[in-house]
Amino acid sequence: MNKNISNKFQNELNEYIQKIEHQSKINLVSSNKECKTYEIIITVFNGLHSLKICIESLLNYTNTKHTIHIYNDNSTDNQVSLWLDKLVKRYAHIYVYHHKENIGYLQNVNFALTKINNDCIILNSDTIVTLNWLQELDLVASNENIAIVCPLSNNATILSLSEASLSNVECLGQFKGQWYPIPTAVGSCMLIKKKIVEEFGGFDLIYNPGYGEECDYSLRVRNKGYSIACAIAAFVYHDGSKSFLNKAHVIKKFNSKLLSLRWPNYEKEVKYFSENNPIRQIEEVLFKMDLEKETILHVIHGLDFRGGVELFTKEVIEKLSNCFNHVILIPSHSELNWKYSKIILDELNVRVIN
């Protein structure tokens, strides 16, 4: 065999082995300790409908020993204040702070962090918690080196389960105490230890009004040797991106540039993580629990679905969608046009492996 070909093959083999090892980095925490007491921080600006759903889920799935602290950022919808005041009178473990003027999301969160007496959870007002969510976050947080813990979700960037897996999220309990390291926390739900807040303070207001602040915070924390973790058995639904409405895209774009300037290797690291995300193993387990139908494996070279084999595959899946489960396998080196293809894949309820 030609020496150059041999070396190339060896390099590709080593890269593949490294990828498999990365995907297998799932750790286990075993502890019989009682769940600690947490302070749940929710910042609010309007969005009463989502807030009501969020609070209802907390009341259903969270022990009342954990206090809920709601910081109303001078909502322009007067119904928010009225409803919150009624809520406080009804539940002794819920506290509300009304700001007299709007200070913005980041300053509101930072203000809340100055008030904590325990480890805390920052929770978006457009989330829905599920059974054992907090117990699982707490279990993983018992690892002293872990600074921040996040749950899996339906809408949380690198922690988002595929559409095809969501029908079986109640089965995540089998991953009790299991976690894996992630490059950054995801802001919709974050358990942050009090000692970390004391050491690092709040979020950098350069990212005001929001987006990217949790990534910057995670990198600062990791720079000091701490880990950021995903608790596999914890799941929190997230509606997403309603805080800044039409400004969301512009803010994200601008803050992403700020993040890249401060942390030049961040995008590359997240890209590598995304290509080797352990979440795929979890989706595989959840997917196999719902196999009443047989599965067809489609092996193609891309996901544009604009011609040739890809278009034919799409047509086959559409015709047989009610008869079979469908999995698409593409080469790991392929450039994925997720922005275009995800819409199609979600509509067809198809899993992709690469």
What does this structure look like?
The longest helix is centred in the first third of the chain and has 21 residues, at 3-23. The model has no long low-confidence stretch (mean pLDDT 87). This protein is an alpha/beta fold and 354 residues long. The chain starts with a helix and ends with a strand. The protein contains twelve helices and 13 strands. α12 links the parallel β12 and β13.
Give the secondary structure arrangement, pairings included.
Blueprint: H1 3-23, E1 27-28, E2 39-44, H2 48-61, E3 67-72, H3 78-90, E4 94-98, H4 105-113, E5 120-123, E6 127-129, H5 133-141, E7 146-152, E8 178-181, E9 189-192, H6 194-200, H7 213-223, E10 227-238, H8 248-262, H9 266-275, H10 279-288, E11 295-299, H11 308-320, E12 325-329, H12 338-348, E13 351-353
Parallel strand pairs: 2-3, 2-5, 3-4, 7-10, 11-12, 12-13
Antiparallel strand pairs: 1-8, 5-9, 6-10, 7-9, 8-10
Gist of the model:
The chain has twelve helices and 13 strands.
Tag the structure with descriptive keywords.
10-stranded mixed beta sheet, alpha/beta, 13 strands, 354 residues
Separate helix tally: 12
Mean pLDDT: 87
Low-pLDDT stretches are none
Q: State Rg.
A: 22 Å
Percentage of β-strand residues: 15-25%
Q: Could you spell the SSE succession in H and E letters?
A: HEEHEHEHEEHEEEHHEHHHEHEHE
The termini sit apart by 28 Å
- Rough shape? globular
Helix content: 40-55%
Largest sheet entry: 10 strands, mixed
Structural class: alpha/beta
Number of strands: 13
